Amino acid sequence: MKMHPFDFKRTMLIGLVAVLLAASIWVVQWAVKPSSTPASVSAATTLNPVAYVNPFIGTAPGGSHFGTVGNGGNTFPGATYPMGMLQWSPDTISRLPGGYSYGDHTIKGFSLTHFSGRGCMAYQDVPLMPYVGTVTDSPALNGTLYNSTFSHSSEVAQAGYYKVQLDKNNIKAELTVAALTGMGRFTYPASSSSTMLINAGGSAIRNTAASVTINPAANEVSGSSTSTVGCGSRHYTLYFVAQFDHTFTRWGTWNDKTVQAGSKDSQDARSGAYVTFGTNYVPVLHVRVGISYVSIANARANLVAQHPGFDFNAMRAAASQAWRQQLGAIAIHGGSSDEMTTFYTALYHVLIHPNRFNDANGQYLGFDGQVHTVSGGHIHFENIAAWDEYRSQIRLLAIIAPDATSDIAQSLVDDALQGDGHIPRWEQTNVDSHGMRGDGGSIIISEAAAFGDTAFDTASALTAMVNGQAKVREYFQDYATLGYVPADCSESAAITQEYSNADFAIAQFAHSLGQQDIYQSMLQSSLGWRHLFNPATGYVQPRARDGSWAPNFDPALMNGFVEGNSAQYTWMEPFDLPWLFKSMGGNKTVVQRLDTFFTHVNIGPNYPEAFMGNEPSLEVPWEYDFAQAPSHTQQVVRRIQLQLFNNTPGGLPGNDDGGATSSWYVFSALGLYPEIPGVGGFVIGSPLFPSATVRLAGGHILTINGGGANDRNPYVQSLALNGNMTSHLWLPWDSVKNGATLTFTLGSQPTSWGTGASDAP
């Protein structure tokens, strides 16, 4: 860390060191804690997983357009920290939810906040843009004047670091981050007019308020940006402080169409600031940025608490080390370089969200609009996309980041206690955007507990799950009375199925707490989806209030469903598959139907086949196991891996939704999948890699050996658990949580392994 040679008195120096030490100790408590690492695998062998992260994966279309915004992963390539507060990344001109399109060649700014893989616009707050020249036109009205072209050949994207050369003024931009702050390093040509634009009113969704204040004496710009949460209508305010290591020679602000040279303040929804400095002798400018959702003072305090000074390389190295520690929770060996990169980039995407919401002093803004303080050593999280994440992502986090997962659960509980009593469905900043459908937040909490992460207020969680349903569940009274949501309500069948999954998960959670009355009630309620299965058609379909079936049913149509159709949703109750399969005519019929369903693996929402680019289909490939046909699961999963995921910008099959799609890939490559909501355990597939070790809580290790594993050998010939041969297709969490070894023997031809009646889950 570089320090300027100030002439402190000895006593003042001692006091400053003490303050900084205390702050650094406090901030360390906010680092996302992975599972503890035993000495025997402390180095995760010598593999550095950071070398296998390609943040460009998901920034280009991954297939045909299916109605999803951006037609791809909607990820971003910029600098981010594991579950950190900032996501500092370039924004290109195509206006995508991730802010960046690989097909673009023009950058309009580097904004501080992003959501990876979202399907609607969000964040992209306070873009900064380097420039050389005089600011005469307002960037609010004539932003294209300050855009710059770039070439992908000049880009470098790594975990925690991003670099690009801007063609317009020959400026090199580099970005890195810490848990609460970020730093930019900008190399300008020699000039007395080198400038930085700070667009407080430049969020992705039109700002409702913004402010900037320039303090030339401190070489600082501060302000706020108020915008609207993605897929919602509620507002949030981001506060920021940007500190520069160059003296300002000129400055000014803009307000809508007006530019005022020499102005130090502006307050308007389309406000921004510019500062100018000389780079004739020192061409490299450093900018430290802190943000907060509480106050400007907290944003400034975050800067003091983390990496004070302008040592860019130190912050970059710390970010890389943080990613190495997190990604090292799973060590894989074997496979090609591209397969390793696809795997570790998927794991990287899983670990971007949710995000810390509290500042270095522990403060965060609650659902009641008041400032609260999280308990020491814990994190309050935001960006909890429950509809997407409950299907596999939270289950992966529960295994490899148990402390963080307990904090995620507690965050949802605190949101309920500080709000109107319901568990949020799609939590962003300090509001529930109510994005998508269902009651996924309750499932997330149930799954954290199912995988042993119970360091949260479980009693209050269950109370909010039960008593808050009317606040989060659309058409709640209809569901409670009829057992299903009737067809005159929008997306009725999908909503019913989501509630059934949630009720089953809540039942399991209640059972774990000894609340048998709630368990029995919610278990019965979870069967409501059966009302919508029509034995005459063999599909789930919308049903009227009087019990009649809605007319003009077609399993390929989206009527009554969300981002999918009946052919895709009919499989979406994995906790009740024995009943479904019996109602369909038995296992033989089910296997034939599934084979037809997987004729195509990513057909989109308007055909009666698989749509693996979206969440409702994620669990379906594993359902062959329940029909005593595990070789079909093994073959279909391998097809999906090889056809839809790869080490290219188009290497994701659809929106990554905060890492949800990527988490499916991680589990599939390990040969396991947590199929049932609210239940700790896995169905068995087949591993893609010859060797994998997973770091569990308490220093335990799950070892997965894939003898003969490669692209062409998906079929399980045999499996041993801790040296004992087994053909069971369900692996309970209790059997591996204290460490275990799975030894697969794989081949190119299917066998009868796992096909016995007693082998099915």
Automatic annotation (TrEMBL):
GO terms for cellular component: cytosol. GO terms for biological process: carbohydrate metabolic process; glycoprotein catabolic process. Residues 298-748 form the Glycosyl hydrolase family domain. InterPro entries: 6-hairpin_glycosidase_sf, GH-type_carb-bd, GH92_a_mannosidase_put, GH92_N, Glyco_hydro_92, PNGase. GO terms for molecular function: carbohydrate binding; peptide-N4-(N-acetyl-beta-glucosaminyl)asparagine amidase activity. Residues 52-292 form the Glycosyl hydrolase family 92 N-terminal domain. PANTHER family: PEPTIDE N-GLYCANASE PNGASE -RELATED, SECRETED PROTEIN. NCBIfam families: aman2_put. This is Alpha-1,2-mannosidase.
